Amino acid sequence: AEERALECGKRLGFALTTNATLLTDEIIDFLVTHRFGVNVSIDGGAEEQDRHRSFKSGKGSYEEIAPRIRRLIEANRGHGPPIGARVTLTEGAASVQDTYEHLVEELGFYQVGFAPVTSAPGRDYALADTSMDALLDGFRALADDYVEAAINDTHHGFSNIEDLLRELHQGVNKAHPCGAGLGLLGVSTEGDLGLCHRFVESGEHEVGDLESGIDQEKRQQFLRDGHISNKPECQTCFARPHCSGGCYHEAQVRYGDASHANVHHCDWVRAWTDLGLEAYGRIAVGNPKFLDRLDGKQGAPAGATMEVEL
Fold first, then answer.
1. For residue range 115-161, what is the model confidence (pLDDT) as tens digits?
2. Is residue 297 pLDDT above 70, yes or no?
3. What is the rounded CA–CA span in Å between residue 185 and residue 203?
4. CA angle, corner 154, sides to 149 and 157, nearest 5?
5. Separation of alpha carbons 102 and 45, rounded Å
6. Distance of CA 189 to the CA centre of its chain
7. Are strands 37-41 and 206-209 parallel, antiparallel or unpaired?
8. Residue pair 259/265 in contact by the 8 Å Cβ criterion
9. Cα–Cα distance, 234 to 225 (Å, whole number)
10. pLDDT at position 121, please?
């Protein structure tokens, strides 16, 4: 791919997300040599990680992956894009502040992104409404730390707030919540094309396969149905340019319709967007030059912030 890109005069980048269980010195060297952007899926310290991320034998994975992660971070230092962590937040999880501190100070991650789990109600890992309130409090505390660091012109690795600030600074106004069907497709091991990785092999919203190509009519119809203008609940919401109705797959799970707005998250999204606007204003007053780093021309790759379903 690198050779072909050079021939075509194109810039090429690689990125992956890994749970780190298969990282070897050989693989680490390969990732560093080819400047992969790497996010590691890890939920925190040993207790948090091992609650939901265990091997088939029942053995927890933290003890296995922690030294591999440290080797990756050390080998990559000064060579490739900074290594980020991606945390799935489930019911009963430790505070985001404690988790962030462990991943940054103990393991050495450059940045950490948190993703609240999305699932149908009744699952033991599903976040209760009170847990979402506590989660927002934790996000607010980390956002305060980020703002303080920004005003002092130092780094802070809370990628959720940085991603939001970047969108606000660049004036992003989304007609669709994500790249599904736009610049993104999911490919199954059988060659089927889904709107994104979540729809792959789910039997829902396939838009072609590798043999016959993309079914453009189905893809365009999906984009028309999922356009923000077709979501009545979103029309008066001030957070609409940031949210655009939320994740398609979660809407399919919750409402049986991928184009439906995720109205169960509206209060959360509005509160989070309001927090971001406040943080942006504080930085604009305290150190406006910091915001120049969010113009899309410099800075580390954004961490993962999408919600996921287990």
1. 888 666 677 777 777 778 888 999 999 999 999 999 999 999 999 99
2. no
3. 15
4. 70
5. 6
6. 23
7. unpaired
8. no
9. 14
10. 65
